[in-house]
Amino acid sequence: MKIGLISDIHGNYEALRVVLAELDKLCVDQVLCLGDVVGYYPQINECCKELRARGIQTLMGNHDWYLCCGGFCPRSKSVNECLDYQRKIIKQDNLQWIQGFSAYKRIGELTLVHGGWCDPIDEYLREPSEEYFERIQGKIFASGHTHVQALHKWSRKTYCNPGSVGQPRDGDPRAAFAVYDNGFHLFRVEYDMQPVFRLMRSLGFSDYYFGCLKTGAPNLCRLPPEDQHV
Fold first, then answer.
1. Do the beta carbons of residue 101 and residue 58 sit within 8 Å?
2. How is domain 3-205 classified at the CATH fold level?
3. Which of 161, 169, 165, 111 has the alpha carbon at shortest distance from 141?
4. Is the distance from CB of 42 to CB of 85 less than 8 angstroms?
5. Domain map (residue ranges) of the chain
6. Strand partners, 6
7. Closest CA to 99 of 125, 69, 142, 63
8. pLDDT digit string, tens, across residues 25-65
């Protein structure tokens, strides 16, 4: 079975629809989302509608958990400001759908979480190691959360992070995803960010909240001066 893996959409519908179109071209049999449908960018209802219409099974990410359980991010004021807005606009049926997300999923030999296997929702695997996965049952693993696309193959274990659809943080601004088909294959695709910029501005968010999309920066940041008035 050819499986498409997406993660960390974060309300960026412009990126999501382009990624899903690419997965359609690749003729995948199934698409799985590793969490964080919401957070940061405002088209959360559009993202939920698209995933639900396609029957895409989705895991619980930390931003999903914050939104549906009334929690907050202990690390970032800006994350909480975005979530405050999203709590006002989320449709009730989409909220109930998010509340039904599971923390773990296994399909055949492929084991999936959003974060890590010590904390499936909020563990960052920034430097995954063979020693870490030797403690975990299974051979093939995938998770998101770091927004950094990665593939590691060791003697007995393989780990993939498909990267972020909606907010890459690895210096490559193109939307990231992966396909599993007897092995992992990593992909990137360009999309038009300007609708995201215009929508965020219209809602009163400064470019600090979306400037990182331009460069794939590891943190929120402002747009370069030449792009601030585009």
1. yes
2. Purple Acid Phosphatase; chain A, domain 2 (3.60.21)
3. 111
4. yes
5. 3-205
6. 33
7. 69
8. 999 999 999 999 999 999 999 999 999 999 999 999 999 99
